[in-house]
Amino acid sequence: MKNRTAYTLVEIIVVIALLGIIIAMTIPHTNYFKAIRESLEIKELKRDILFTRNKAIIDSKIYRIKFIEDDNSYTISTGSASESITIKTKHFEHGIKLNTKEGSKTFIFNSNGTTTDSGTIYFLDRLGNQHKLSITPVSCKVNIEKEIQPIKK
């Protein structure tokens, strides 16, 4: 009779238990990484608005940042409205959903860095929480606030 080596039932159960523990530990981290990507996307949006303002000051030109709800994106451009040069187009890919309430909204930065009008953009995160992005007209300060949802009774 030949010697056959095989795994015992105890060894198989231990391996399956260890695999189950490892898988159970990695599942919560996937949501964690989604939240990080979403947060980075919001920070990139704020940086791009400040970049647009700074670029208008440095180049002494008019720069625009246009939010397009249908495309869930924003575009940074310069030049006249008829001969616009696109600098950057960013599509939100990690849970952010624009809610401009107007279809699209454009902020125009003058050569001195001020915007022609203040405005507010609303967007939803992946959990459905509403955030408000507002730009003050004179200082061009960018504020992003998470709006508190009323408690349902």
From TrEMBL:
Matching Pfam families: N_methyl (PF07963)
Gene Ontology BP terms: establishment of competence for transformation
Organism encoding this protein: Tissierella creatinophila DSM 6911
Name of the protein in its database record: Prepilin-type N-terminal cleavage/methylation domain-containing protein
InterPro entries: ComGD, N_methyl_site, Pilin-like
UniProt xrefs under SUPFAM superfamilies: Pili subunits (SSF54523)
Transmembrane segments: 6-27
Alphabetical keyword list: Membrane, Transmembrane, Transmembrane helix
